[in-house]
């Protein structure tokens, strides 16, 4: 059976059976020295203060297979409730949605996801003959979102950055990347990953934030310059193999390890990964902390994160302005955290202890 069709029709099946099976051995072999790694992430939600009907929404791994990321399937269960799998059409995002009636003592949803990843690197020294992207995809990734406009102060800032830059879109995107690294900072006081309100950041001249803010800044500035760009939302699942404490999940509990990344498109090169926010994370958090921008640890990561990602990371989706199916609450800028509602309203998705939810990750051995 086609895996995509299987996932899209899984809502009609018993929850325990709704899993796409992909043999682990399919990704065991290294290709060019870059081996696939397989992981399993378990997300467990239990509402501590149920009121009336409970609704829970969880993202699943990226539905579209990439040369650096492939979903191996999902299983889910919500005792006493109904579960359905929903595909959001605009961004092709998968969501597991549970509805649990009043009277269930401990409303809960558990989703187990398996996926394969391998490190991603694009040779930016020369075009690689990448096939042309679908024009509709490029158009989508030039459009504004509710928190990432492409006009006004965003366009003015982009023009100012690029006014003396000569070259193709790769050169122009590099200039924007360097500007974001040089002018922003990681603000530890920001809750979660930040919501990415780049217009407010530019208007107030407060360039502090986390990945949801700083990488959104990169994406918005690129889009306003006519360079297709997008955020990819996910979560870290393992430690870094490059020796950076700040670049990995260092325990099996990853409930607070959410991280989004960015990429941009250049004809002849394809989609190129970037992550200026993680450069600023190294500056702030890499031991001993508060490193100088010209510290060798920072310079190494700054160079690496324009064109490469270490794939100790699960990708969820590219989706912005997310409407949760069946929700009475507002749109979300993105779906990277568990979300839930009761009769009392939307729960705080950034407070896993009070919510309550736990995410754990483990690496799987190939068959």
Please, could you describe this protein's structure?
With 367 residues, the protein is an alpha+beta fold. Helices cover 22% and strands 28% of the residues. The protein contains nine helices and 19 strands. The chain has helices at residues 3-8, 135-140, 152-162, 169-183, 198-204, 211-224, 276-285, 296-304, 352-355; strands at residues 30-31, 34-35, 37-46, 54-59, 69-77, 82-88, 93-100, 108-117, 120-121, 185-186, 208-209, 229-236, 258-266, 270-274, 308-309, 313-317, 339-342, 345-346, 357-364. The strands form six sheets. It has a five-stranded antiparallel beta sheet with strand order 6-7-4-17-18, with no helix packed on it. Strands 5-8-3-19 form a four-stranded antiparallel beta sheet. Strands 14-13-12-16 form a four-stranded antiparallel beta sheet, covered by helices on one side. Helix 4 (169-183) runs antiparallel to helix 6 (211-224) and helix 4 (169-183) packs parallel to helix 7 (276-285). It is globular and about 65 Å long. Residues 1-31 have low confidence and may be disordered.
Strands, count: 19
Instruction: Characterize the overall form.
Output: globular
Report the helical percentage: 10-25%
Largest sheet: 5 strands, antiparallel
Strand order of the largest sheet: 6-7-4-17-18
SSE topology:
Elements: H1 3-8, E1 30-31, E2 34-35, E3 37-46, E4 54-59, E5 69-77, E6 82-88, E7 93-100, E8 108-117, E9 120-121, H2 135-140, H3 152-162, H4 169-183, E10 185-186, H5 198-204, E11 208-209, H6 211-224, E12 229-236, E13 258-266, E14 270-274, H7 276-285, H8 296-304, E15 308-309, E16 313-317, E17 339-342, E18 345-346, H9 352-355, E19 357-364
Parallel strand pairs: 10-11
Antiparallel strand pairs: 1-2, 3-8, 3-19, 4-7, 4-17, 5-8, 6-7, 9-15, 12-13, 12-16, 13-14, 17-18
């Amino acid at each position: 059976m086609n895996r995509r069709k299987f996932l899209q029709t899984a809502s009609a099946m018993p929850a325990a059976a709704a899993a796409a099976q992909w043999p682990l051995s399919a990704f065991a072999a290294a290709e060019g020295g870059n081996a696939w790694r397989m992981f399993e992430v378990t997300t467990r939600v239990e509402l501590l203060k149920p009121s009336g009907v409970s609704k829970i929404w969880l993202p699943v791994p990226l539905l579209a297979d990439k040369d650096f990321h492939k979903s191996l399937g999902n299983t889910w269960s919500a005792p006493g409730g109904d579960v359905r799998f929903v595909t959001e059409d605009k961004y092709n995002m998968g969501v597991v949605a549970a509805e649990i009636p009043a009277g269930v003592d401990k409303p809960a949803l558990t989703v187990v996801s398996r996926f394969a990843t391998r490190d991603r690197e694009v040779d930016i020294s020369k075009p690689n003959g990448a096939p042309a992207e679908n024009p509709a995809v490029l158009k989508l990734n030039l459009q504004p979102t509710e928190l990432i406009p492409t006009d006004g102060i965003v366009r003015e800032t982009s023009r100012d950055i690029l006014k003396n830059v000569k070259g193709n879109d790769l050169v122009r995107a590099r200039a924007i990347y360097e500007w974001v690294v040089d002018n922003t900072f990681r603000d530890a006081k920001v809750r979660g990953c930040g919501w990415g309100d780049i217009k407010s950041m530019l208007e107030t001249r407060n360039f502090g934030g986390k990945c949801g803010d700083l990488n959104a800044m990169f994406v918005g500035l690129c889009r306003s310059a006519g360079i297709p760009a997008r955020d990819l939302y996910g979560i870290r699942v393992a430690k870094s193999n490059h020796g950076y404490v700040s670049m990995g999940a260092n325990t099996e509990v990853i409930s607070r390890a959410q991280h989004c990344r960015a990429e941009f498109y250049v004809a002849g090169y394809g989609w190129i990964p970037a992550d200026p926010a993680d450069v600023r994370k190294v500056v702030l958090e890499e031991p001993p902390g508060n490193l100088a921008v010209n510290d060798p640890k920072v310079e190494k990561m700054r160079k690496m994160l324009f064109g490469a990602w270490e794939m100790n990371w699960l990708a969820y989706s590219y989706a912005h302005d997310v409407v949760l199916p069946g929700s009475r609450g507002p749109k979300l800028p993105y779906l990277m955290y568990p979300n839930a509602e009761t009769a009392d309203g939307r729960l705080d998705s950034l407070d896993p202890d009070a919510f309550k939810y736990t995410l754990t990750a483990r690496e799987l051995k190939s068959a």
